[in-house]
Structure formats: C-alpha cells, structure tokens
Amino acid sequence: MTGTAGRTEGLVVEGLSKRYGNHTAVDDVSFTLAPGSCLALVGESGSGKTTTVRMLVGLERPDGGTVRLDGRDRSARARGRAERLARAREIQMVFQDPYLSLDPRVTVADCVEEVLRLHGSLGAADRRARVAELLDQVGLGEREAAALPRRLSGGQRQRVAIARALAVEPRVLVLDEAVAALDVSIQAQILDLLATIRRESGIGYLFVTHDLAVVRHIADEVLVLKAGQVVESGPAGQILDAPEHPYTRLLLGSVPRRGWDPAAAAPLRRALG
Questions:
Q1: What percent of the chain has pLDDT over 90?
Q2: Among 6, 50, 188, 219, which one is most buried in terms of CB atoms within 10 A?
Q3: Residue 272, domain CATH
Q4: pTM (2 decimals)?
C-alpha cells in the first residue's frame, strides 16, 4: 500500500469490552489488522464474535477500549451524517445471507448502483460503467446484472454482496460467516475470489467464522474467542497445526475430515467445563 504513515496503520483494536446488564459479551479484546492482511476471528456461537464486529462497524458503542483505523478513533459516536457515511465507507460487511441485504424488487445492477449513488458523486453514465466494472471484478456479467436477486444462485448473490461492499473502496472488509451457507465447491470459488481481490486491492479482511476448515485457505492470523475473551492468537499455521489452548483444540477436533471421530471431542469439551 502507498500513502502516508498514518494511512498504513490499519485497524487497531485495544481493550474492547461490552456488557449487557450482568452479561459480559466482550472482555478486553485486542488485535491488529494490517492493510492487505486477513485475520480470522473464530469461536462458537456466543463467543463474542458478532458483538465485536458490531462495535467495529459502529452498530454498538463499546463500554471500554478503542477502535482505530489508520490512526483515526472510531470508538466515539459519529458527529453527523457525513462522518457516519465516511465511517461506513471505511469498513464494509458481507453477511452470511446476502439475500437479506439485497432489495428483491430491483436488479443486481441497481442494487450496486444504489451504493454509488449514496456514497459518491459520479454521474449516471459513470455510475453504470463503475457497476459493470465491479460486477466483472467478482465474475458476474450483463445477464446477472439485469437479473433480480431471487434469480441468482447463493454463490452469485454472495458475489453481488462483495461487489456492493467494494463499491466504496473500503479499507477493511468484514466477512461475517460469508461462506457458511454455501456448498463446498462454491465456498472454494468465493474464497479464491476473495484472495484475488485482497492481493490486487490491499484491503484488510476480518474473516468471522466458527468453521476452522476454511480458515487455512484465507487467513494469515487467527484470534480465538471464548465467552468474550481471547484465549489464543497467532499465525494461522501455528494455531491450526499446534494449538495450545484446550478450546482451540476442541474447535479443531470438531471439524469433520477423513478418519474423523466426533466422539474424540467429548473429553475436550468436558475438560473445559
């Protein structure tokens, strides 16, 4: 990446915490996502992944800690519409089910153009050209551009969601269980697409998942959450091949594979209480 020193800092999260009544959802979570890198945030349901992400994008305010992107503090409430839009452009999300975020009444091209109309100043002709460019980037053509979302496959809809997120040229892309609903062959296609986009654009990925089977294919670093706390973090190869924490070993032991014995994970779960 080029630019000033501040421009290359990436996403820095320090001491993030969030409580709901007597329940601590996130407890002192810290990590750094460098530009162009991919951090996998893993853990079972209830581990604090979703709450952490909601604080990163501004849907929840942290009770403690800071979120900085390229040196700019995102922890405080945004001041006015312009700042909210600027923050939205910086960090975009791709969800597990993109159909819920696509307007079923308008074509794919119009879904993408809507983002450009909201966040940019391009004229109509330039917007249409940019839409075509974005759809081509994710492997979609004129036929898909003219279709309604319900006419597309799950993999195609996920490609549309990625194109929409890329439209505002974000610094960070949060992929929240983004391939969980796809079959294995389509998962591989989307993961390959994401790898290509990251290599070409320098966008940082925060890949949120409970499925360690796909982490090896995309992540540089892994951060493991349990009950809102970080229990293990480090390079993906180290975490996946030689996990130190029993909870990480449990997650890995729960991944179906050749010769897999699901009963083998039971002692690990009992040891965790």
A1: 63
A2: 219
A3: 3.40.50.300
A4: 0.88
